[in-house]
């Protein structure tokens, strides 16, 4: 088999695997994107997959998960992941009206349309910005400071997030010195510690007598799933027939616009997009379904744009998604690196052209759509029923804990595991108490390794 045939086969195979895997994970309510997509992508990178296969895996994982997260959000009343939270109010109102299946279909159709639009728009914006890429990489240490402060202020914690960055950055520097003192130069472990921070904080809280009271429930949670009602023929409903013309236009416009807002919080952009759309629809029912279509479409477009634009134009993770769930595409030592002193990059930005990103991006969206979209449209109720009755949330958590342990031991043995637990504990608590999200923490990590040495050198 030629090298090109091998790369194409691996890309298609890993894309299909990611679509199936994250369609299943998306059914589990509350599964965070960073905690799930990032470690899985990191494993693919470290196993030596070709660049196009790595990119296809990540894209299929992100697109599939943000389609399937509509099922628990619409049918169970539980957010499928972080970006599903802004969809909850309208989804709850439609569920109270007895039309959760309508909410689900509108969300899924909006996601499909937005994903296909976001890929070419993101590549176009990246190509426009690429000429200044050299200046961006040269000024990377200072850009990360500004971008980190801006993103921290836009997060839920606001000033508390900015204040929480100081001890977090100092912790990263101290742990670097600790690892170096033991003869280790770790990279992946810092990333894993931040990614699993919320998970570590929850697990530790479950062992605390003071926190256990917050988690106790008087009775098992009861979930009611509305009956399904199929209103189309065939297996693959046309998303342009699921949405009316006005809804399709609003979703497409939102996808184009949000593909350019790659430095903002995807949650904030999702909320704002819904608020901007609301006044354009007069009828209450039409407004609810339209906002859901647009907002779920924006969950796709923001994730795609916040990965593609920084990756193609700069090779630097200067967006919340690029620094979080997509971080392995930028920095996964020893294979992908961002040089701390010069800002030079060696990652997918180096190995793939804008045309390749466009082609494989569209291929990825196609694969994910063919797997996740018809599955959710046809089997949503049966899948939701199966998950709520047979799938253990603890088993999913244990799977990812095991994955983190394997990668951590590979990266640096017991020292790496200690580092992961330390960062996870501190980062998870900062996230819970101060609203210092994982995306902001990833930006803080880059400030520690890129910006702080430059600042110290300038002041010294």
What does this structure look like?
The chain is mainly alpha-helical. The chain is built from 22 helices and two strands. It has helices spanning about 5-25, 35-45, 50-70, 70-75, 90-95, 100-130, 135-140, 140-155, 160-180, 190-195, 195-205, 210-215, 240, 245-260, 265-275, 285-315, 320-325, 325-330, 350, 355-390, 395-435, 440-460, and strands spanning about 335-340, 345. The longest helix is centred in the C-terminal third of the chain and has 42 residues, at about 395-435. The radius of gyration is 21 Å and the shape is globular.
In one word, what is the shape? globular
Percentage beta strand? under 5%
The low-confidence parts are none
Major sheet description: 2 strands, antiparallel
Order of helices and strands: HHHHHHHHHHHHHHHHHHEEHHHH
Q: Determine the number of helices (DSSP H or I, runs of at least 4 residues).
A: 22
From the helix content, strand content and strand pairing, which structural class follows? mainly alpha
Radius of gyration: 21 Å
Question: In which range does the helix fraction lie?
Answer: over 70%
Q: How is the largest sheet built, in terms of strand order?
A: 1-2
* Tally of strands: 2
For the record, the count of structural domains works out to 1
Average pLDDT level: 83
């Amino acid at each position: 088999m030629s090298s090109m045939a091998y790369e194409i086969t691996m890309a298609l195979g890993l894309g299909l695997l990611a679509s199936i895997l994250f369609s299943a994970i998306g059914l589990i309510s509350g599964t965070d994107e960073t905690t799930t997509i990032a470690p899985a992508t990191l494993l693919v990178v470290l196993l030596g997959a070709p660049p196009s296969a790595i990119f296809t895996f990540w894209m299929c994982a992100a697109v599939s998960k943000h389609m399937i997260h509509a099922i628990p959000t619409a049918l169970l009343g539980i957010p499928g992941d972080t970006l599903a939270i802004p969809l909850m109010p309208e989804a709850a109102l439609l569920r109270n009206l007895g039309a959760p299946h309508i909410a689900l279909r509108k969300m899924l159709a909006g996601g499909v349309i937005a994903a296909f639009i976001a890929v070419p728009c993101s590549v176009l914006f990246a190509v426009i910005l690429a000429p200044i890429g050299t200046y961006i990489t040269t000024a990377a240490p200072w850009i990360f400071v500004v971008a980190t402060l801006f993103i921290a202020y836009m997060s839920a914690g606001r000033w508390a997030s900015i204040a929480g960055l100081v001890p977090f950055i100092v912790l990263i520097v101290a742990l670097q010195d600790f690892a170096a003192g033991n003869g280790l130069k770790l990279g992946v472990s810092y990333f894993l510690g931040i990614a699993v921070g919320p998970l570590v904080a929850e697990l530790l809280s479950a062992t605390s007598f003071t926190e256990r009271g917050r988690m106790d429930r008087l009775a098992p949670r009861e979930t009611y799933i509305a009956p399904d009602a199929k209103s189309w023929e065939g297996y693959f409903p046309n998303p342009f027939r699921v949405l009316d013309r006005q809804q399709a236009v609003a979703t497409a416009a939102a996808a184009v616009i949000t593909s350019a807002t790659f430095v903002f919080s995807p949650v904030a952009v999702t909320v704002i997009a819904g608020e901007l759309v609301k006044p354009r629809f007069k009828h209450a029912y039409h407004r609810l379904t339209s906002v859901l279509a647009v907002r779920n479409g924006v969950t796709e477009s923001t994730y795609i744009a916040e990965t593609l634009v920084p990756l193609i134009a700069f090779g630097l993770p200067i967006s919340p998604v690029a620094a979080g769930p997509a971080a392995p595409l930028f920095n996964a030592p020893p294979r992908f690196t961002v040089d701390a002193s010069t800002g030079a990059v060696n990652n997918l930005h180096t190995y793939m052209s804008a045309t390749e990103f466009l082609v494989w991006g569209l291929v990825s969206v196609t694969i994910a759509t063919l797997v996740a979209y018809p599955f959710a449209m046809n089997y949503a109720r049966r899948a939701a029923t199966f998950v709520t009755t047979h799938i253990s949330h603890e088993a999913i958590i244990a799977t990812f804990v095991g994955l983190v342990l394997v990668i951590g031991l590979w990266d640096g043995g017991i020292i790496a595991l200690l580092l992961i637990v330390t960062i996870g504990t501190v980062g998870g608590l900062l996230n819970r108490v101060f609203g210092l999200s994982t995306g902001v923490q990833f930006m803080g990590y880059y400030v520690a390794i890129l910006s702080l040495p430059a600042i110290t050198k300038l002041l010294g």
